[in-house]
Amino acid sequence: MCGRLAIFAGYTEYSAQLPFPIKYDLADFKPNYNAAPTQMLPVLYRPDEEEPLLQTLKWGLIPHWAKDQTIGYKLFNARAETAHEKPSFRDAFVKRRALIPVNGWYEWFRQGGEKQPYWHTRNDEGMIWLGGLWESWTDKASGESVRSFTILTQEAYGDIARIHNRMPVVIGADDYAPWLSHDVSDKSEVRDLIKAQAEIELEIYPVSKAMNKAQLNDVSCIQRID
Fold it and tell me: Which pLDDT band, with edges at 50, 70 and 90, does 2 fall under?
């Protein structure tokens, strides 16, 4: 599971790690140290534009066939192993992939009846680009159009697995372009991109349980505790 993120980088930090030009539409976005599903977060995707677009989308995928938006509450993650088979994700898996730029994510370690949050971030404090899927949904009654996304998850490995058995899919720099490309539309090709693990060194440490409440949203969320 990946249910909490932190995204507080500036425009230049987003583009610095990308090998291609992108467009921006983040006028209303503010640094978010405790991002939760249903919120609007920056997502890099390729709609109809020639260049990828970095724009805020709603976290929690709403399939184009959904009757209303409520299904998005359940679809903020998609298992990478089975997404290509599921009705909610299979079209987007081959046609509408996205990169979600984050400074890190939170996961909880359960011991007895207690759950301790841990912050996962890069040792070099760079951006982490998570693999995701996006979708466009239109309300038939109002005509309102909503673009939403989900984050792919996989079995955790290394030190990450000591905290939780699942983790978000991390896309490596060499695969940013093919991950967003409309030309990569074969399920096996997409699965190969997921299997090509990004080699990043993470720093993982415990943070205050106060961040369990999404209302807390400042730098204290990522501060190390003893």
Answer: confident
**How big is the CA angle at 193 (ends 189 and 196), to the nearest 5 degrees?**
135
Return the pLDDT at 49: 72
- Rounded Cα distance, 58 and 24, in Å: 16
Cβ partners under 8 Å of residue 197, min gap 6? 157, 170, 172
- Residues with Cβ within 8 Å of 202's Cβ and at least 6 positions away in sequence, in order, are 120, 121, 122, 123, 159, 160
**pLDDT tier at 19 (50, 70, 90 boundaries)?**
confident
Domains assigned to the chain: 5-222 (3.90.1680.10)
- Hey, which bits of 66-207 come out as E strands? 77-79, 97-102, 104-111, 114-122, 128-138, 145-155, 166-168, 202-206
CB proximity list for 216: less than 8 A, separation 6 or greater: 34, 210
End-to-end CA distance of the chain: 25
